[in-house]
Write a structure and sequence with these properties.
Blueprint lengths: L1 H16 L2 H18 L1 H6 L1 H28 L5 H32 L16 H9 L2 H7 L1 H18 L4 H22 L2 H16 L8 H24 L5 H7 L1 H10 L6 H10 L4 H14 L2 H17 L6 H14 L9 H13 L11 H29 L5 H8 L1 H11 L1
């Protein structure tokens, strides 16, 4: 009995220390402690997070190209591509509008901006955001957004391959390349704890926990609202197809922790695409929905933007009329879709929205500078989960979802099997 206990104990210890989730959690905690107690050293850790994200970004466009092109080339009915794309755009618009309305309603009733001190306005420089807002255009968004360009090219190339008589000569090398690109990604993801450590140490070291206090109510309101959106709205969407949101979140927990540590959904985007395929979503649907959703299905960003506008109106005691509220909703429904296309996207879109409404002082953005980084984690995680749910939903809609693969992916045995193979 003692021998059996010893074997089980050693197995559990080994499993713990070969578990990526454990190491990412440890890294996030260590980074937060370093940033809090040694701020200068925490800030110096920024390259670890930045370079990790930069390396992962190298995989995003090749994976999008190969996934979409190979998926479409194997489809007999090309009308399905257009149908999936149309459904995806409709889904994105409906769900982000729901997110927008939830953010406005919650901010209206909780009043996170009531009684906030505006002294911080003098201390923040928002000029780079207001300049970018003036230069923002949809043409610029499409020109600067390489992901969208790769998405469009991949669709066209996939259609070309599907009509090409000797397509196997092209497809076989692409499959070979896809296999080894994903292997390379698995190796890179082993360094995720280092990236998460650097990202969290920098955030806490540069901005500090103390910066959260003045706007703590806004922070808490944003996090609670996004939690409600994830478990009620997105959970309800999955429940329609008898899929548990908790099981889904458990399945992608490693990716969520990486997003939390790095404040970037890009850091786990390729890994999400692979996991969705393993979960039973069809390759063409994954290839179309996830990249497009990265630019157009920004649920978390939409919630934040809507709450930030109402928050600033409350700070400056601006009583918005129904007409002004509808104008804000209309503007955000459009501008929020371009929030992934430019640097400092959240602030730039927010600045352009305030400028368009022209009743709330744009200088109020300085109030949000200190806490924006801490809310970026909530935005990124919500965006990330939203795109995963969209892919699962649309795969089911297209009857291109394998529930047996999902059950296998969700099972503990399958997870342990994959982990042993990757380590």
């Amino acid at each position: 009995m003692a021998y059996l206990y010893s074997v089980i104990k050693n197995r559990n210890v080994k499993k713990l220390f070969t578990n990526l989730t454990f190491w990412v959690l440890l890294a996030i905690s260590s980074g937060a402690l370093l940033g809090h107690f040694f701020p200068d050293k925490g800030v110096a850790m920024q390259p670890l997070g930045k370079y990790f994200i930069d390396v992962v970004k190298l995989f995003i466009n090749p994976i999008i190209f190969l996934t979409i092109s190979l998926g479409i080339s194997g489809m007999n009915d090309l009308k399905k591509v257009g149908r999936v794309g149309g459904k995806a755009i409709l889904y994105f618009e409906i769900v982000t509008t729901v997110a927008l309305l939830i953010g406005i309603v919650v901010a209206h009733f909780i009043q996170p901006g009531a009684g906030v001190n505006t002294n911080a306005i003098q201390g923040g420089d928002i000029s780079k955001f207001t300049k970018s807002a003036e230069a923002f255009s949809w043409l610029k968004f499409l020109k600067d957004n390489l992901t969208i360009q790769v998405l469009i090219f991949s669709i066209l190339f996939g259609i070309f391959l599907s009509k090409f008589n000797k397509k196997e000569r092209v497809i076989e090398p692409m499959k070979f390349a896809s296999k080894y690109i994903f292997k390379g990604l698995h190796i890179v993801m082993l360094f995720a704890p280092i990236g998460a450590f650097g990202g969290m140490a920098f955030t806490i070291g540069k901005y500090g926990i103390a910066t959260l206090m003045p706007l703590g109510k806004l922070m808490l309101t944003v996090y609670i609202t996004m939690g409600v959106f994830i478990f009620v709205v997105l959970g309800g969407i999955l429940k329609y197809y008898k899929i548990s949101i908790l099981q889904f979140l458990n399945y992608i927990k490693e990716e969520l922790l990486i997003v939390l540590g790095t404040s970037s959904s890009e850091a786990a985007l390729p890994s999400l695409m692979e996991k969705l395929e393993k979960m039973g979503c069809a390759k063409p649907v994954v290839g179309l929905v996830v990249p497009a959703g990265y630019s157009f299905n920004l649920d978390g960003t939409t919630i934040y933007l809507s709450m930030a506008v109402i928050f600033l109106a409350q700070v400056f005691n601006v009583n918005l009329s129904l007409e002004q509220m509808l104008t804000i909703i209309g503007i955000l429904m459009i501008t929020s879709k371009g929030a992934a296309g430019v640097t400092g996207s959240g602030f730039i879109v927010l600045a352009s929205t305030l400028a368009a409404v022209d009743v709330i002082p744009i200088e109020g953005l300085a109030l949000l500078l200190g806490v924006d980084r801490f809310m970026s984690e909530a935005r990124a995680i919500t965006n990330f989960i939203g795109n995963g749910v969209a892919t699962v939903f649309l795969s089911n809609q297209e009857k291109a979802f394998d529930r047996n693969m999902m059950d296998m992916a969700f099972s503990k045995e399958a997870y342990e099997y994959d982990l042993k193979n990757e380590i």
